[in-house]
Amino acid sequence: MQALLSPESSFYLSSIHTSSRNPSPCRSLTSLRFSKINGGGCRLIRRKPRPTATRAVLDAATIEELGLKESDIRNPAISSTYRSSKLPKPNQTVLEAQARVCTGPTQTRPLSEEQAFKVLDTILRSVRGELKDEEQVSKAQLGAFFAGMTIRANSFPEETQWSEGERRAMNIFWPLLLRALPPDVIFIADPEGSIMGLGSSVGPQFIGNGTSEMRLVGALREILAGGHLGYEEIQGVLKDVLPLKLEDGISTGVSESLLSALLIGQRMNRETDHELKAYCLAFDDELGPAPVADVSSLTHYGEPYDGNTRYFRSTLFVSAVRSCYGESSLLHGVEWMPPKGGVTEEQMLNFMGANTNLSLHQAKELIEDEEVGFAYISQREARPSLYSLIGMREHIKKRPPLATTEKVQQFIRAKGRESIVAGFYHEGYEEPLLMLMKRRGVHSGLVVKGEEGALSMTTRLRSASTLKGLPVNYCSGFRSVGMESACKDDGVSHQSFRLEVNATDYGFEPTDTPRTDRSVSKNIELGLAALHGQKGPVYDRIVLNAGIVDHLLGCDGAEDVTVALDRAREAIDSGKALKKLLNYIKVSHKLK
């Protein structure tokens, strides 16, 4: 990666030394700094180890070879190590069961009798205090698991309701669990006292503690029966219970079991448009009115917050390219997010030395800066209430409604035209995403089924085995137009489109997608090499994703897709895109 840095860049790497005498990682790290010198070129400055530099950059193979656990060493080159050590870990036995039973009406896979016995025994031993530390089943897990079982019993089709094995296991364990579980979990497991067959009065009589929980319990009665909530009801509940207040990993406010049951329950029931709108807009005013950037065009990129675990993630580098010809971008996300815990833009920017703690007003300045022209904002800074749920989201296992709606945000507005681009994976969510974009009032919107459900379209040939669902490179969207050939939605005229992007139609050679396999440093290395003009699969993907998005969004100068692709190439080949990225790293630290 060293050769990829321009003379004007300042970039830090840590190296770790091993030897036959000492196979363990040496705690004496060497930091390398690339610095501009007179007359061009760059020199390496070998820096003395800083006292706080107690972590090393290791790849996954080295970690395995040395017999280390990821929890033993913070490796900033691997995405999974960005998980906060302060977050309590979920019980794996129950988490695996949640992956099977806390999903949709057709995707759910009932547990076998053996699996059900193991899970219920684990839960019973945990609530009795017989399991310690990471073996304990969290309150959020209890809420999610029993919510999944209740919704399946009440409203799922016969093939995904309880198996005979699950019923036999529950018949044996429920009398014991009834004496050990707290009232809120008993309510979730049997809200009307009719599922378990023992006629318990706990569920029917449960109302919660305090006004916030009482409203949440009322909402849950509808959800656990397979029903839906109204827009105002959801917004009221969310604003009542968030941000989640924790002390030593334990909620000091609303019951975590009840909240996790709400989040997973609404996803299992498949959210209505009104419910998605409520989640999407609930905290728009959390920090006051959105700043307005003085730019002619702004694209909001909604990548999945949980990152990429397999393939190259291109959007950060695409944004640098698009900024070269006046198409400003706002990226947003988090450092680490379950369930995938993959490579994110925040990890890459952190690794390259950028400031990722920017306020909304500081991000606005970067967007307006002609030497930069794009920005990244962390959910931590933009929506603290939603950010407080990261730990709970790991414990509910499956993605909640927020995983969809957080991709359609406008943390900063623009004086000029605005667009939103969001990635999706599961068929059926493309239309709700576009609905939310129209609700936002943007001029154009685009959903992309890129690789891993992210935004990166590929130059790889479509697999012959892809028989079900929408293919990778499927795009659907709308553009605001005149009255002719347009449809009306929310009072705005839109021209809709849908297509599958075939890269070979635009002159790209078919290539396999470069794998990064959770490696933050590999993703950066590939992206920087491409911005240096190194031709190949990554270069082609950055060009493709910049040019096609410009064209589909109806950006100025991109009416002809060939011209749009050529200007993206010129932005890279001229060195402008690389300079924009390096400027971002530098300027992000100078903002006040």
TrEMBL record:
Keywords from UniProt, A to Z, are: Glycosyltransferase, Transferase
Q: Which GO terms describe its cellular component?
A: cytosol
What are this entry's molecular-function GO terms?
glycosyltransferase activity; GMP synthase activity
What highest taxon heads this organism's lineage? Answer: Eukaryota
SUPFAM superfamilies according to UniProt: Nucleoside phosphorylase/phosphoribosyltransferase catalytic domain
Q: So where does this one cross the membrane?
A: none
Q: Which residues form a coiled coil?
A: none
Read off the InterPro entries from this record. Nuc_phospho_transferase
> What is the recorded name of this protein?
Anthranilate phosphoribosyltransferase
Q: Which organism is it from?
A: Hibiscus trionum
